[in-house]
Amino acid sequence: MIWNKPKECMTLEEKRNLQGERLRKLVERVYHSTPFYRQKMQEMNITPADIQTVDDIVKLPFTTKQDLRDNYPYGLFAVPMSQIVRLHASSGTTGSPTVVGYTRRDLSIWAEMTARCLSAYGADQNDIFSVAYGYGLFTGGLGLHYGVEHLGATVIPMSSGNTAKQIKLMHDFGATALGCTPSYALYLAEAMAKTDIPREDFKLRIGILGAEPWTENMRKEIEAKMGIDAYNIYGLSEVMGPGVSHECQYKDGSHIIDDHFLPEIVSPDTLEQLPYGEQGELVFTTLTKEGLPLLRYRTKDLCTLTDEVCKCGRTSVRMGRIVGRSDDMLIIRGVNVFPSQIESVILEMEEFEPHYMLVVDRANNLDTLEVQVEVRDGFYSDEVMKMVDLKKKIAHRLQSVLGISADIKLVEPYTIKRSEGKAQRVIDKRVFN
Ligand code: DLL
């Protein structure tokens, strides 16, 4: 079902006009309320009057995570704290976390856009959602939570962890939908299979999976193991949280809520805007946000965009899967390697479980890549020759996809640490200095 047809199915011209009008107002607002943006615009010799249509977006400055860190905690907020009703923050792996603030209106827009996502997955007020994204500073739990309530469905605020209880309550409460990371969905599916509750005693039918990159093969795996329809949900805390884009029943790219978030693709090297269809870095301008409005926020996520109208009737711009980040790309012996390429190889081979760990190191001044991967039950063998052959097979495939060789370490099923949140799949032991 289409939750907000007037907004989701506008003609391209209507949308362009709406976006242009919202962009004009946004630039006016940040120029007068955020010293950071006023200074940036003055440095570039532009004033709000230079921004008249969406095409003028290219004149505006970019914003990065570093800008948020440099203005920690509230420096980029565009309203007084008396109007901020909620804070979230991203885990600060390096330095300070990035803090995001929401006004009451921001929260109500967020709930509405998340309800649009859930509706596109085929959910309605009869559904019961187990939200297994973390609640707290992370936007996943509360973001989805308020979307479910806005939809009028029932929410079980499970949060992450405590797998046995997750499974029991999904069963006892008759959950029909599950929100969690794709890696946790796989873990849950395995744990469910080990209980004595038969699959048909669960009512689960929809998975709302995101917060980390995953592949089509991983979708197939989750759908088969859990017996659900698995849908992608994308978002980032700086821009709002989960629900910035979502799939529909056709699962052919994710619809961006582009009446609120204006997307662009740029070259991560030159920062030039790229035409739709070309792969580059995704950039968002938050057209309506009040608490923390952002101009041209560089997500570092790499993907493509298309504005072809979807079979579902929505006219929103769609993004392809995130194929990597302009900053998580590994450079191994001079070759650019995306962990998702390795994952695809693993998932295409029936002998392996979708659980792996990449260990990057340096020996004698040469980069090394070790791929630890779980062999599926039934394929694991005590016969050395069988294991050697299997190693050769995957090593050969990886070499042809990546262009570099990798050391393979085959491990028994269930030995790689499972994650309850975002999977940590790369250990880079190299020191770059
Ligand atoms: O992960 C928000 C979210 C919560 C999205 C729950 C979906 C579901 P952050 O912690 O700020 O926010 O991390 C944002 O995670 O820039 C992407 O690199 C990655 N990411 C999020 N969703 C997807 C997805 C939340 N569906 C960063 N596919 C983003 C690939 C994703 N990567």
Q: Which ligands occur here? A: 5'-O-[hydroxy(phenylacetyl)phosphoryl]adenosine
In total, the number of strands is 21
Q: What's the shape?
A: globular
* Domains (count): 2
CATH architecture of the largest domain: 3-Layer(aba) Sandwich
Quickly give the structural class: alpha/beta
**Biggest sheet: strand arrangement:** 4-3-5-6-7-8-9-14-13
Helix content: 25-40%
User: For the terminal residues, how far apart are their CA atoms?
Assistant: 53 Å
Poorly predicted parts: none
What does this 3D model show about the protein?
With 433 residues, the protein is of the alpha/beta class. The chain has two domains: 1-327, ANL, N-terminal domain (Rossmann fold, 3-Layer(aba) Sandwich); 330-432, GMP Synthetase, Chain A, domain 3. It has eleven helices and 21 strands. The strands form five sheets. Strands 4-3-5-6-7-8-9-14-13 form a nine-stranded mixed beta sheet. The chain has a four-stranded antiparallel beta sheet with strand order 10-11-12-15. Strands 20-19-18-21 form a four-stranded mixed beta sheet. Bound molecules: 5'-O-[hydroxy(phenylacetyl)phosphoryl]adenosine. The site of 5'-O-[hydroxy(phenylacetyl)phosphoryl]adenosine has 20 residues, from helix 6, strand 7, strand 8 and strand 12.
Short description:
The chain is an alpha/beta fold and 433 residues long.
Task: Outline the secondary-structure elements.
Layout: H1 5-8, H2 12-33, H3 35-43, H4 65-70, E1 84-90, E2 98-103, H5 104-120, E3 128-131, H6 139-151, E4 154-156, H7 163-172, E5 177-180, H8 182-194, E6 206-210, H9 216-226, E7 229-236, E8 241-246, E9 254-256, E10 261-266, E11 280-286, E12 297-303, E13 305-306, E14 318-319, E15 324-325, E16 330-332, E17 335-337, H10 339-348, E18 352-363, E19 366-375, H11 384-402, E20 407-411, E21 426-428
Parallel strand pairs: 3-4, 3-5, 5-6, 6-7, 18-21, 19-20
Antiparallel strand pairs: 1-2, 7-8, 8-9, 9-14, 10-11, 11-12, 12-15, 13-14, 16-17, 18-19
Helix pairs in contact: 2-3, 5-6, 8-9, 10-11
